[in-house]
Amino acid sequence: MASYLQTYDATPAAERWRLVRGWMHNEPWAFYAELRKDRPILVMPEVTLATRFDDCAEILRRHDVFSVALYKPKQGDYFMAQDDTAVHWREKSIMRAILDFEDIPAIRTFVASKAAELLASAGGSMEAVAGLTRAVPLALVQEWFGFEHVDPAKLCKWSYWSQIDTFWNQPFDAIAWSDPAKVIAEREAAGKEMVVYLIELVAIREGKLKLGLGGHDPVTRLLELSSSGAVKFDLRRVIENVAGLLIGAVETTSHAVVNALDFLISRPDDLAKARAAALGENTAAVDGYVFEAIRFRPAFPYFFRTCEEDAVLGRGEAYETAVPKGTTVLAVTQSGMFDPKAMSHPDEFDAGRGLGNQFHFGLGLHECLGRAIGRVMIPEIVAQSLRLSELTVGSVDRKGGPVPESWDWRWKN
User: Fold this and answer.
1) Which Pfam families does its entry note (predicted)?
2) Which end of the chain is more exposed for a tag (fewer CB within 10 A), N or C?
3) Phi-psi region for residue 391, left (φ > 0), alpha (ψ -120 to 50) or beta?
4) Can you tell me the distance from the alpha carbon of 246 to that of 192, in angstroms, rounded to the nearest whole number?
5) How far apart are CA 304 and CA 88, in angstroms?
6) CA dihedral 105, 106, 109, 115 (to 10 degrees)
7) Do 99 and 372 touch, CB atoms closer than 8 A?
8) Which of 215, 216, 237 is closest to 226 using CA atoms?
């Protein structure tokens, strides 16, 4: 039987990226193992893949060489679509301050309560994506972040299309979509609806502040900061960053929760141990099972960057590879987390492994803003689900797309 690379080399150049993409989605572990061993940097006209830990880390840390230029057509001048600029420096600092680290235990308590409430009221059956894995972060956005008086379905739509277009509808993704332009149109329409709502929300919050009725939610605190004139942060920037809170919170959380649970369910022994930890309220142990499951099946198997100058990956190694300016580079972090140079016994499932040398929330300048929140929200939703008695599930339905869209559950009520 031919190896992956033998099959790849025998395939016409124009068909190779489609072939590789299929392996990345359908049989990643064996494919990446072969790449790490025999061709750690895989060069194609459409993209260049980096599969070893050190190269993934270099791509994500070297924002001066490997930029997020592909975000800009989707996110405009939002700070996450910029690299080391004054706007990025200032606004990421503001948003980190607004998302108080001290609130993390209370956020975990809120998530636990909301997830338990949704499951208890479901009567022993649920479509879990809409009913739980999206519903809990949506509740956090509404009740904790301050998105009042809006249909959660609208919030979900706005978050969904922004995520889909930004992270799954890039030029190198064109082979996966029958109509990429339709995805862009959906994101633009959703964005316009969201901005109208956010303008109204900000106006209401400003009025409350003038009446002395301000709260402590992030929207209100951002308005207080903006009105103080202490930093360059006008109302347009407030609205843009409030939108980022919504967009970043929902779909990535849902995707990670589904992947973690689905993977654990495929491993009955580990599932039983994780469930025992959840029933025993051993949060540290549950977290270990969840994030080890996500190492095997991450929501984002790679991060994409644009090479801004001629560069080299694998410098000093036998596979040292020149990367020309303009190249789209994929740091295949799902592979990097299985590199034996960075991880002991990487092919083994080890719930006590810890989070060192892992890429769950990115790395470097563009590390996820909501890392601390995701670090508790994702495993807590899983923990509440693990407590269900005699849970049986169907197949995760992605409806032909990149993210979980539907998942039917039944359990003993």
Assistant:
1) p450
2) N
3) beta
4) 14
5) 19
6) -110
7) yes
8) 237
Whole-number Å distance between alpha carbons of 249 and 323: 34
Residue 156: both structure tokens together: 């979900």
Inter-CA distances, 389 with 203, 308, 384, 410, Å: 46, 53, 11, 9
The DSSP result for 73-126, as a single string, is HHHTT-GGG-SS-HHHHHHHHHHHHHS-GGGHHHHHHHHHHHHHHHHHTTTTEE
User: Which pLDDT band holds residue 132 (cuts at 50, 70, 90)?
Assistant: very high
Host H or E run for residue 338: none
pLDDT score of 215: 82
| pLDDT for 37 | 98
| 103-121 tens-digit pLDDT | 999 999 999 999 999 999 9
DSSP 387: T
CB 330 within 8 A of CB 167: no
CB of 387 closer than 8 Å to CB of 278:
yes
> Tens of pLDDT along 320-375?
999 999 999 999 999 999 999 999 999 999 999 999 999 999 999 999 999 999 99
Comparing C-alpha atoms, which of 60, 356, 255 is closest to residue 68? Answer: 60
Average pLDDT, the chain: 96
Average pLDDT of 32-47?
98
The token pair that represents 166 in the structure block: 């930004």
How far is 162 from 289, CA to CA, in rounded Å? 30
Tokens of 71: 């975000």
List the chain domain ranges. Answer: 74-297+372-412
CB 141 within 8 A of CB 164: no
What pLDDT is attached to residue 114?
98
In this structure, what token pair is assigned to residue 297?
Answer: 């099946």
Q: Which of 80, 137, 31 is nearest to 362 (CA)?
A: 80
Return the structure tokens found at 271: 């599932």
Q: What is the pTM of this model?
A: 0.97
Which single residue is written with the structure tokens 């990535």? Answer: 252
- The answer to whether the CB of 123 falls within 8 A of the CB of 413 is yes
Q: Record the tokens describing residue 149, joined without a space.
A: 């008086």
Average pLDDT over residues 188-194: 97
pLDDT given for residue 213 in this prediction: 84
pLDDT interval class at 149 (50, 70, 90)? confident
**Whether CATH 1.10.260.40 fits 74-297+372-412:** no
